[in-house]
Amino acid sequence: MSALPQQPYFLRALYEWCVDSGYTPYLSVRVDSRTRVPQGFVKDGMIVLNIGPSAVRNMHMDNEWVSFSARFGGVAHTIEVPVGNVLSIYARETGQGMGFAEMALDASAPVQEGGDRSVPAQVQPAQADNGDSEGPGPQPPKGRPQLRVIK
Questions:
Q1: Measured between alpha carbons, how far is 109 from 54 in angstroms, rounded to an integer?
Q2: Of 45, 93, 127, 131, which has the fewest CB atoms closer than 10 Å, so is most exposed?
Q3: 67-98 pLDDT tens trace
Q4: 89 near 14, Cβ under 8 Å?
């Protein structure tokens, strides 16, 4: 599956918005043979990654790939994700963000007020260990993220 032409631009814009607003950007990713992530954190063929500046190093987003280095359980990993495998990007603190083609209009997704379908939260985020933590970070918000498909 190739990425929509706009998807890499939306990813970079929403990443910058999250960081500029003081939010933690998360990526929900479909894992396949081209995706390089720690397999121990993959659940149901998906992984959610904290891509905040304090959790990753050497972040690079171009029109084809999202790549960075992060520590998982104290072990350094190079993460490489094809842009077409990114299912959503959102701010952890607010749930605001954008879902992409593969999750769009899933018939099992609940309908919210106004008729919009939300993007289901299907896996828990894999937390990168950046070595700077002073104990557990802030608790994730309760409930489902409020992502909506935008046409």
A1: 32
A2: 131
A3: 999 998 889 999 999 999 999 999 999 999 99
A4: yes
